[in-house]
């Protein structure tokens, strides 16, 4: 019986194919636009956050408790064996060691306060692509000792170039002032996170010797796929509990980036709400007009003994069919657009110029998050069914006698 009612609801929509087609088209166009916008939005975020993490931060980092908010050498990691064991147990293979502190960089003509990050040349490329941002000279290699890399703005302010010497002045582990000569071998450009200015990079071994930190580090940056971030973070926190260590995700350290993504998604949900209102109005209009034209037909159904519930379900099934047809067409169109633009890419530089300062590659390839697609489809189908409730209720409440008299 339910199958018959659904079939009758489908057949009723063919009575006025033009009106049905217009309603389905409105749903399909709105949904296709939403699917494409979600694809572009997700592709943009994937591009931006991937570049943000691979530039310097990594997916997550392990420090001594409180080090990130107050980077003092006293808060260092002396024995990293338990951490490495926890990483292996969590299936993490891409990690590196670092030593970070504040320093003063001095040349023959100027000085500049900077943040020193000492890196292991062998393992750093597993986590970040900072070496790709070297625009002059080169990045570190295994075996390099007292060499450094500066940001383009810092090198310009200090009046130095590749091959020149600078002096790094900092407090060592015991609070004593120490200074060493470093030869500048590379200059990086990239914007954001102070890379162009206020940052000096050195090999890990040289910094450990200079700061009396032999065998000691301050943090372990890690890279994991985005889909594993929460799982790995939970595993590491449980494994390292009680060891005075903090495991911080990229958005724990830089919440502004995460909040920006959340705000951007909110605009897409607002657009979804607007599309849902259009769908609601279109389906309600279609079903109400159809109901008014078929009042006598409904009266005959009731006079023949059909139950009011059956009439309610029949009219509601019409909204279901409208929604399913619109969703099918909209998903095909939207996914087609996402697939096409993912293949060709969308060149943002035509509108925005240089996008590197936003951690965005000029060519963005849309990528559809299935979670967002599922939410959108469920919302459109739900609002389509909701739109049919009032017309279905009106039809089921008709009086058979008055309905049969309707002309």
Summary?
With 407 residues, the chain is α+β, with helices and mostly antiparallel strands. Helices cover 53% and strands 17% of the residues. The strands form three sheets. It has a six-stranded mixed barrel with strand order 2-3-8-5-7-6.
Key structural traits:
407 residues, 14 helices, alpha+beta, elongated, 53% helix, 2 domains, six-stranded mixed β-barrel
Residue-averaged pLDDT:
87
CA radius of gyration is 31 Å
Order of helices and strands: HHEHEEHEEHEEEHEHEHHHHEHEHH
Strand content: 15-25%
Counting DSSP E segments of at least 2 residues, the number of strands comes to 12
Largest sheet: 6 strands, mixed, barrel
Helix/strand-derived category reads: alpha+beta
State the end-to-end distance. 30 Å
Count every helix, treating DSSP H or I runs of 4 or more residues as helices: 14
* Helical coverage, percent range: 40-55%
* Low-pLDDT regions: none
Sum up the overall morphology in one term: elongated
Domain count, please report it.
2
Strand order of the largest sheet: 2-3-8-5-7-6
């Amino acid at each position: 019986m339910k199958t018959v009612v659904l079939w009758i609801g489908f057949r009723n929509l063919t009575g006025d194919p033009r009106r049905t087609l217009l309603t389905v088209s409105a749903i399909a166009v709105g949904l296709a636009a939403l699917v494409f916008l979600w694809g572009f939005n997700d592709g943009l975020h994937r591009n931006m956050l991937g570049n943000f993490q691979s530039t310097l931060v990594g997916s997550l980092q392990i420090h001594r408790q409180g080090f990130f908010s107050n980077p003092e050498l006293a808060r260092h990691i002396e024995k990293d064996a338990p951490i490495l064991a926890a990483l292996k147990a969590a299936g993490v293979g891409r990690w590196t060691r670092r030593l970070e502190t504040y320093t003063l960089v001095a040349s023959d003509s100027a000085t500049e306060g900077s943040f020193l990050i000492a890196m292991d040349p062998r393992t750093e490329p597993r986590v970040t692509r900072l070496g790709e941002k070297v625009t002059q000279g080169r990045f570190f290699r295994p075996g390099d000792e007292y060499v450094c890399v500066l940001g383009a703005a810092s090198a310009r302010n200090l009046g130095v170039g590749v091959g020149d010497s600078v002096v790094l002045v900092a407090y060592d582990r015991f609070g004593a002032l120490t200074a060493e000569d470093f030869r500048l071998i590379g200059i990086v450009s990239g914007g954001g996170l102070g890379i162009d200015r206020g940052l000096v990079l050195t090999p890990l071994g040289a910094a450990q010797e200079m700061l009396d930190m032999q065998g000691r580090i301050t943090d372990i940056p890690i890279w994991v796929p985005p889909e594993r971030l929460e799982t790995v973070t939970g595993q590491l926190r449980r494994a390292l509990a009680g060891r005075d260590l903090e495991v911080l995700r990229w958005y724990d350290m830089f919440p502004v980036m995460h909040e920006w993504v959340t705000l951007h998604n909110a605009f897409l949900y607002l657009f979804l709400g607007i599309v849902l209102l259009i769908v609601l109005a279109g389906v309600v209009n279609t079903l109400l007009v159809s109901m008014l034209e078929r009042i006598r037909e409904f009266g005959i159904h009731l006079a023949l003994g059909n139950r009011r519930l059956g009439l309610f379900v029949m009219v509601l099934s019409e909204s279901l069919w409208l929604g399913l047809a619109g969703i099918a067409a909209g998903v095909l169109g939207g996914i087609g657009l996402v697939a096409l633009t993912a293949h060709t890419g969308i060149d943002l530089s035509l509108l925005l110029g240089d996008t590197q300062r936003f951690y965005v590659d000029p060519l963005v390839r849309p990528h559809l998050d299935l979670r967002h697609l599922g939410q959108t489809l469920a919302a459109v189908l739900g609002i389509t069914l909701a739109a049919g409730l009032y017309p279905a209720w009106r039809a089921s409440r008709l009086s058979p006698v008055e309905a049969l008299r309707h002309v």
